[in-house]
Structure formats: structure tokens, C-alpha cells
Amino acid sequence: MNIHEYQAKELFAQFGVAVPKGVAVTSAAEFEGALAKIDTTGGIMVKSQIHAGGRGKGTFTDGFKGGVKFSPTKEKALENAKAMLGNTLVTAQTGPDGRKVQTIYFTEAANLGKRPDGRDDEYYLAILLDRATSFPVIVASTEGGMEIEHVAHHTPEKIFKVQVDPAVGLQAFQARQIAFALGFSGDLFKQCVTLVTKLYQFYWEKDCAMVEVNPLLVTKEGKLLALDAKVSFDDNALFRHPDVVALRDLNEEDAKEIEASKFGLSYIALDGNIACLVNGAGLAMSTMDIIQHFGGSPANFLDVGGGATKDQVTAAFKIILGDANVKGILVNIFGGIMDCNVIATGIIEAVKETGLKLPLVVRLEGNNVEAGKATLAASGLTIVSGDSMADAAQKIVKLVNNK
Amino acid sequence: MSILVKEDTRILVQGITGDFGARHARLSLDYGSQVVAGVTPGKGGQVFEHAGKKVPIFNTVAEAAKQTGATVSAIFVPPPFAADAILECFDADLDLAVAITEGIPVRDMVRAKRAMAGRRTRLIGPNCPGLVTPGRGDKSSGGCRIGIAPGYIHRRGNVGVVSRSGTLTYEAVWQLTCRGKGQSTCVGIGGDPVNGTSHLDVIKLFNDDPETEAIIMIGEIGGNAEVEAARWIKAHCKKPVAGFIAGATAPAGRRMGHAGAVIGGAEDTAAAKIKIFQECGISVAATPSDMADALLRIWKG
Fold it and tell me: Which of B219, B230, B231 is nearest to B260 (CA)?
């Protein structure tokens, strides 16, 4: 689960991680009140709150440039905020449709900018799971303010990593290693050790999947601040963090994916035209792959899980048919334990209930498969049977492409 | 031989009184597997009955192992309590803990995996279908079935199968069985980012197992476990290996059902993994329908 930058910074502040002061609002009527709560003398950052990255370089659908703007005066901040709120921001990560900005975050911008020697004082800090070791890893770099993938590719020597042993947690020497690696000394060194320690505590206690601070910044006054914050949580651990669940913003999620999750279905929309309904995540992924292999284009990932009840199949059909791009459906079920005849009955009822007119190919395999196939054949409905995954994929691709 | 479990392996089931655990304990008993104990804290002394078989229930794993000689646990405990169930297996010095449970918090698994270091217990999973060593009876009955895989699709033979995914494993197994090729052991290592046993761990066991003559390795996007295994195969494996990678069409950054199946960087895409498989001499299946045939192109059985 992802949260907004302003929510991440509120959590940071609770854990003692230094952030610039800011206020988030959702209506233009609140702009003036919000600006009155912060110190605007050194300028204000006006920041569109959407879950996708690349906001600063994004463009709104009406042509307004920049989803994050430095505003030297209150008046300029109001102007920028009005241009952003309710507008749709397209970034490198949103896709062409972009995201509607429904929250504006004003933050104090005093003392930001370059040091007297002209150097950018921006750093990078992230904490995530290292899958190779199954230990949390803290990633730090002196090259803040740019994409870490770019740094990793061009100057890997500028990336410093510390593995945290979960048996004992982050040790003081490790926080010092990071502060040294970033080149800090004196008071900034102490601030860095504190910030890294608190940030790790936040990551661990709140079951984060990833915490990223880019940039971590030194102000002209010599304060170390998390200028941006990107946080995602482990979905499996949300049951023990009701305060985190309360931060979920359904506006940022696909309506069909939300609907699917209510029925225990795992659904992800893609941009093709052949929908698929499959049991098991691995088989669902490979069903998408085989559609593409035979010249088609998958419209979604949909895993109905191990059970695949009639209600789930019906819900899945409704969700699939809610996508106007869908021109055909491939059902691929390996009913190892489930009775294929029960699944066949569920498919027939779902077809009748939704009044399906699109081509439908069903590949059933497994327990009681002959009875299942017979039930489908006797239904009087136009359901094409596939003998194998390859056969079924070729049939649906042909039916859709020849229309 | 086979790997990890044999026909006579004695199994205990943690969570045997829950719907999910009970259902699969019955299916394992029907398959002829030696389910000898159940564990549900607070229900010790009760008996799990199925088809004339009586399986005693214990309060603790240690007690169940001591009383019945069980060496392997199948864990069907709900996610909030599953890591605790795994740690209890380590404490009881079992040979093997197989965690079927889906949805265990990553932090719990990070701690559990750390606690496994220096212990004799091997963990398989979590979020996995378990493992099957097929039997020699009708429809492979009499084998050792731990977890949720359908037993009847198997056939005893000489192909080792390792995969993260359940249904994709069944697909490969069924293709083999339909072509008259049996399996030594089929292992589902699970779809989570932190798991107890990797592709490489299982490949090494297959390489050392005299009954296993050939291997099918099924992977997916995310992480570098398949790549690590492929490089080891190139350097050390004496047996023919076929492979498949799921997720060629998956969009970057999205979790595809399995928590581990997220494309994070250039190295863990399907295309990158397939290229490395080919460089390492693995016969790559072009589609999931082609897994058994990909093996049979390089191994005649």
C-alpha cells in the first residue's frame, strides 16, 4: 500500500525524523488558512499529492508545467496551487491518462538551495528488503535529487549499502558508517546518525516495504531534512497497523482492482483486449504471456485463487466486462483439487447472468474434467473449449483478431 | 530415492483443526501419506478422524514429534500466527517445515529466516503448494504429499520439478505424466520474497539424488534466485535442465499476485532471466504449454 508524501512526512515527524514544516489541504478555500500556518518568508514549495513519482517534471493536461513548484511569495503559491488542484498531472510514472490532483501540500522553503560554495547539498537515503540476503538494507548516496537507478548504473561507487541483521537491529556503528560515507562531520554528522536511526525504527515498526528519502537535504542553516518522502507498506502486515490503513486513498487506486479485492480476486488492468481469468498467480502470469506469444494482447491479470467459487467467477466476469477494450475472454483453470464440473457450472451461470456476447474460450484441466467439459458443451452457449493452454490461447487470439 | 521426503516420511499438520488444514490432511491421508499427528494449541488430546484413520492432536510440535516420530510439519496456520508456527518447528528440531500459509508479513519472515541460521530444520515456503514425492500405486497413491497439490496428477519417475507457483507446477507435472514421464519429487518453494529454500537449494538436492535424472525449473519475474540457480547449473549440474520464466508481459513495479513477483530492475525481467537461462545451457520453454517438451528435447528419459 502506498501513501502520499504529506502522510509519509507526518509519520516521519512522529518518529522524530526531521522534515520541513508543511500543511496539506483538499480545497482552494483552505489555501490561505494553510499558508497562514507556516513561515512563508523564505518562499513556499507547492506540491501536488499523487502516488506517482516524477511530479516535478510532470505536465498537467491543460499544459501547466510542473507538479511541484517553488513559489517565492504567498501570492505566487496561491496561483500555483489553484492551477494544480483538480487538474490532471501526467508524469513518467502515471501513464498517459495521468492522475487528478486532489490534495495540495504547502511546505516551508526557507534556506533551501545551494551552499555558498555552489554545491548542491542533496543526498539519497532508502531502506528496503534485500532479497538476496533476506535482511533489510539501508542504501545511501551523495548523489541525491536524481534517480537512484541512474546513479547505480553510471556511478555505482557512489552508492553505499548497510545490511541490518534483524536479530539485533540497526547498530550505532552502522548509522555512523552511513554518516561517514555521506561525508558529514560535526553537528551534521550527529544529525545524520539520529535521522538514520529514527528512519530505520519507522521502517521496522510500521512494516514498511520501502522508505525512500530523495533528496535528503542540508539547509543553508545547516539542518538535515527529509525534503521528499516516498513510503510503501507491506500489504500482508496491514492487519496490525489500523493507523496506516486509515491513510489509504482509494482515489489513487483502480476502481476495478478495489472491486476485485472485495471478492478475494487479484486483478490488475493492462491495455490489451483479451481478458483472462485464471487460478493461481504463476498460471495467471503465464496465461498473459501465452496470449502475447500467439499474437494477442492481454487485457488483465486476474487470479481467482485456489477456490474459484461461482460468486467469484461471476464477480470476475463483471469486472472483466467493465473494461471496454475487452474483445474476448480466456478462462484457464487447472482444477487440481477443485471439481472442474463445479467450475463449469459457475462459468455457465456467470455467462448467463452477465449476458456475455464476446468470444469465450475455456480451458479446463484436472479433477473431473470430462464432466466439466460435457457440462459446458451441453449448455447451449457458444463456449469454445481449449485442450491445452496453447490450444486455448491460439483459439481466443484467432477469434478476437478475425472479428 | 527422492529428495526431502519419502513414502514413509512421518508428517504432522499444524492447524489441522482449521478448515484448510483439515481438508488437506484428509486429502493427504487419502493419497496414502503418513499423517501421524496434528498440532493445535489448546486441543491436545483430541483426535482427528478420517476414513477410519485416527490422528492424535497435540498442544505443541515438540510433543507431537516426540510421541509420534513425525519429522516434517505442514503448516496451515493463519498468517498472523504462521511465523510463530515456523519457529516452533525449528525449536523442535524437525527435519523440515513446509509453510503453506499465504500472506505472512515480510518482517515476520525476515525474523524467522534469521532464526533458522544454525538450526537443523529446513524451511520450505511460505506461500507455497508444498511438495510431493509420488507413490508407486494407482495414480501415484502411496506417496508423500505435504501441502495442497493434487496427488493424482503425479507419476513416480525421474524428473525433479522446482517452482515458485502452485498451478504452474501442476501444469508441468501433468504435462510430464501425460507423456509417460514420472517425477522423483516436486517442490513448490513459494511466491514470497523471503522464503526458506531457494531454487538453487533444490537444484543442488536434485543434482545429488540418484533417482533424479532430469530437472524442470520454473521461475518468474522478480529477484535473482533463478539467475543464481542457472549460473550454478552451468558450472556444476550434471543433469539436463529445462526452464520456464513467467511474467514476460507483466508491467514494471506491479505486484502480480505473488508478493515476490514485482519487476524491480533490469536484471529481474522475464527477458533478462530467459537470456541467462539460455546462456547457461537450460532448454527454455517458449510457452507454459511447452515445459515438458522443452525437457524432452534434451533428455530422452
Answer: B219
**B255 pLDDT more than 80:** no
What integer pLDDT is reported at residue A339 of this predicted model?
A: 83
Is there a contact between B166 and A280 if contact means CB atoms under 8 Å apart? Answer: yes
Q: Is A95 on the interface with B (CB under 8 A)?
A: no
Q: Which of A401, A281, A306, A286 is nearest to B290 (CA)?
A: A286
pTM over 0.90: yes
pLDDT digits (tens, 9 = 90+) for A345-380: 989 998 998 898 999 999 999 888 999 999 999 998
CA–CA distance, B164 with A79 (Å, rounded to integer): 53
Assembly ipTM: 0.91
Q: For position A119, what pLDDT does the model report?
A: 57
Which H or E run contains A302? strand A300-303
Angle between helix axes B225-236 and B270-279 (nearest 10 degrees) is: 10
B-interface mutation test, from A150, A230, A236, most B Cβ less than 10 A away: A236
- Rounded to whole angstroms, how far apart are CA atoms B214 and A44? 65
Q: Give B-chain residues touching A289 at CB under 8 angstroms.
A: 246-249, 270, 287-288
Residues of B with a catalytic annotation lie at 258
Is the previous residue joined to A215 through a cis bond, with omega within 30 degrees of 0?
Answer: yes
Q: Closest CB to A129: pick one of B106, B111, B164.
A: B106
**pLDDT tens per residue, range B88-106:** 999 999 999 999 999 999 9
- Does an H or E element contain A60, and which? strand A59-60
Residue-wise pLDDT for B180-221, tens only, equals 999 999 999 998 999 999 999 999 999 999 999 999 999 999
Q: What is the length of chain A?
A: 403
- Nearest by CB to A286, from B80, B174, B246: name it: B246
Q: Is A234 on the interface with B (CB under 8 A)?
A: yes
CA B218 – CA B295 distance, rounded (Å): 12
pLDDT at A116 (0 to 100): 52
Chosen for mutation from B218, B287, B290 (greatest number of chain A CBs closer than 10 Å) is B287
Distance from CA of B272 to the nearest CA of A (A): 15
Cell 490450444: give the residue: A391
Q: pLDDT exceeding 90 applies to what percent of chain B?
A: 89
- Map grid coordinates 483538499 to a residue: A26
Residue B113 contacts A where some CB pair is shorter than 8 Å? yes
**Bridge partners of A298?**
A274
Q: How far apart are CA A86 and CA A147, in angstroms?
A: 28
Question: What integer pLDDT is reported at residue A146 of this predicted model?
Answer: 80
B289–A290 CB contact, under 8 Å: yes
What are the residue ranges in chain A where pLDDT is below 70? Answer: 113-120, 306-308, 403
Strand partners, A159: A141
Extended strands (E) in A164-299: 208-218, 224-226, 230-233, 266-269, 274-278
- State the average pLDDT for chain B: 95
